[in-house]
Amino acid sequence: MSYDAKVFNVMVASPGDVLAERAVFREVIHEWNAVNSEARRVVLMPVGWETHSSPEMGAGPQDIINQQVLHSCDLLVGIFWTKAGTPTTEFASGTIEEIERHIAAGRLAMLYFSSTPAVMDDVDHEQYQTLKAFKASCRGRGLYESFESLAEFRNKFSRQLQQKLNAHEMFKLAQVQLPSTNPGPPGTFPAATQPLTLEARTLLKEASQDPQGQIIYIHFLGGSALQSNGKSFIESDERRVIARWEAGLNQLKNEGLIIPRGKGEIFEITAKGYEFADKIDS
Q1: What is the tens place of the pLDDT at every residue in 4-53?
Q2: Cα(177)–Cα(195) distance, integer angstroms
Q3: What is the fold of 198-278?
Q4: Domain range list for the chain
């Protein structure tokens, strides 16, 4: 059964040496959603530059990531091990820039530093010194967490994320008030037979902002891909996750908000779809 919920973007910021931790970050977010979202009317959307940024020219890479991804982030989770990341024009690394700009904007950040043993011959010592300096700068500005293994990171992040959701003002329970889907006078919000699911609303909003107004769905051996406006929506091979996005796509088709093109792998938003999307909160 569908339900309305408040969606918060949760961004992971990290260099390239913590890929396993980034995967755990997403797993913990998805697990929290599966258990809590319907009851609490809160959905956490895992966000990262590699999944939520798209090609664009005219500015530096980090500036584009900041505009496309960071600026819409509600909570940022920073993870480090031995690297600080690639330097930018203004900061020691892109990851550090994302964290500093997010904090400067008065938004919530959670930082984690791995103390897992590393082979020092394989460590970039300049990167490591940059990271040590950044970590030292954080000591007087708040609390950060350390962990010694992937399992410890999972346990700590899962517990501390729940603590934030229970206590932080930003995450107070709230019922999303979307425009009514009942028929109204001409020119009002177009009618739908059923309220759109979160997945359907997300797809429709992104399709309305896509330059071609398209949603692309491809099913292949071992998985599926669903994309629009330069974003990918299926981040797990779990059938339950894929089924929810397929249901959202089918709902948009059944409501006449999108129409299939070609062999059915490409869908284009309709005039009714654009009108409907314009009434959905960003």
Answers
A1: 888 999 999 999 999 999 999 999 999 999 988 888 888 999 998 887 88
A2: 12
A3: Arc Repressor Mutant, subunit A (1.10.10)
A4: 6-171, 198-278
